[in-house]
């Protein structure tokens, strides 16, 4: 398997390269390989203990992180995809359908970025258009009708900013999706698995419990976009990331999210199956707690939760 290393992981990449060279060479000492592997593991632990917001941004965008389709395969049984917004068309950037998680029937939806050039183009790199958010509203309406909990997986750089999307009412579609999430009469759990970008993320994240993977990010704009606006220099994205409070750790302190889901050492992209299992356990635990609340209690607590964001800082 070809592994993609991030800029700050160069020391680990060098150690792993030495391991591959030893394994490939004749008469390679097993003991030497074992020592190097242990050294590589310790170096990885050391690096990930001190990574900052910009490094977390790189990890959140890693192409090998589990995507929506992989969470569906790993967590959801009897999955039946549902397509279209019943107004314009279908959006392949925001997928959803019916399924079961540990025997419990649910509505599930999320952004899909794709895994190679062909699928990334098909799914528009996870940037949904108005019909995607109208499909999300349709799925939430269905969840209410059949009294099914909703699970959303957020991983998008933002809603698609193209002319066609704006002409078809991008802002209105996002606003309606946010409003529907806030007024939903059934339990709603959202997990930010990679990037949570702008309104494109919030549109399907106005949930009772909002959780983030340890090295994911959540922001009103990308660090590059922020740097371009503030300093007219996209190269200062690192400075923007440090100032924007976009990490799970910062957002938990600010009350924007409810829970941080710990990732395996080295990030979710190094242990997809383990990450999916951990996320599944966190979702089930949240649904168990929320299932004890009435519709009125869910709506009241959810609205209060979002209205309280930032108030503690005043």
SS summary, helix count: 14
Low-confidence stretches: none
Mean pLDDT over all positions: 92
Radius of gyration, in Å, reads 20 Å
- Name given to the CATH architecture of the largest domain: Alpha-Beta Complex
Helix content: 40-55%
Order of helices and strands: HHHHEEEHHEHHEHEEHHHEHH
Q: Beta fraction of the residues?
A: 15-25%
Helix/sheet category: alpha/beta
* CATH structural fold name of the largest domain: 2-enoyl-CoA Hydratase, Chain A, domain 1
Shape: globular
Q: Work out the oligomeric state of the chains in this entry.
A: single chain
Our count of domains comes out at 2
Kindly state the number of beta strands. 8
Termini, distance in Å?
50 Å
- What composes the largest sheet? 8 strands, mixed
- What is the highest CATH level, the class of the largest domain? Alpha Beta
CATH superfamily of the largest domain: 2-enoyl-CoA Hydratase, Chain A, domain 1
